[in-house]
Design brief:
Bound molecules: zinc ion
Number of strands: 11
Order of helices and strands: HHHEHEHHEEHEHEHEHEEEHEHHHHHHHH
Number of domains: 3
Structural class: alpha/beta
Strand order of the largest sheet: 4-7-10-1-11
Helix content: 40-55%
Strand content: 5-15%
CATH architecture of the largest domain: 3-Layer(aba) Sandwich
Largest sheet: 5 strands, parallel
Amino acid sequence: MENEQKNLSPTEEPELIKKVGSLQELLRRASGMSAVSETELEDAGIAENIPFPFLALVDQTEMKLALLLSLINPNLGGVLLVGPRGTGKTTAVRSLIDLLPKTKRSLCFYGCLEEDVEAGGMDAVCPDCAEKFGHGEPLSRLEKVRLVELPLNSTMEDVVGGLDPRAEVHDRMRLKRGILSRADRNLLYVDEVNMLTDQVVDAILDAAAQGQYTVRRGAMSATYRSDFTLIGSMNPEEGRLRPQIMDRFGLRVIVEGLTKKEDRLNAYQRSRAYQENKRAFWGRYWEETRLLRDEIQACRDDLNEVELPDQAAQTGLELIEALEIDSLRAEITLFESARAHAIADSRKEVTLEDVRTVAPMALRLRQSPFIEDYLHDQNSETELVLDTLDGMITSSGDGE
Ligand SMILES: [Zn+2]
């Protein structure tokens, strides 16, 4: 078999572990990894709530890649995981807790950042921050991105906030913050997004799109920043998602159950080992997990340097045109995820191969006929995206 795992001699292993060239490589290796060292959980800080390790998830490569790309590049528009119950969607999202990078969080109510001054001068920040910047004081601090989960059956009040009933008692009306405001600069996970009311979904998507939202209750109003990466999941058997909502998600992954017997057995064994002793199981993956986390941070820090050359851009645009996709979000997601994929492979330039890898995730479920019966068409849609792209690459590469 061509893609059979190479057997590494024990002497080769440490070198590989020290230097990870690409996320994909780490994923490939880690998915087949049985167990390594027992490690202390000193700096983990997740004593009660130990997530299933990301690297212990069996197979599901596309889901894992999509989630990692969304951590590297918050601008690709988030991820929608589509699949039946019991396929590990929520487990996978929660496992991201160990991989979350750090982000700059403004110290100011208006969200001013140092880079705003660098880009637009002192007028780009509020007067207080302009003064602070002048004195060389920081406008932001580095903070770990958090995973915020929207509870099932959340109401509009939960999501956007509303009047604080406790404050009312003291004859002083106050607005309380909603879940969306806590999601600012974080990941927001919405499980079963197709089961929420239209009103709640619209509020979430509008806030995500605008990066802020305003709550009005009587004479009071408050505006909150809400610049977050949205990760949604849905079970297509439990109801559809309006096409215009589907369109608001960046990457789309069809998550299927494991089909190979050995994968299913492997998944069962790992899940049992995790249930028996979460801490020990988590510890076995910690070294590799930390490497992956550092890799994601490095990729995120360097993302700005990744260029999209004309050839890759033109090919992407032609592909979108050939597939007759109208939404402008298609190219944002396609190019931003290709940039994330390039830096994950330690390159500063997007290649056609990057575009090819992310194209099915970025472009599927964007043509309305497919949305109608995508469960039947999911495989043919992936083939359509890739065949169309391959046809274009072959015909344009004839002269070489
Ligand atoms: Zn400010």
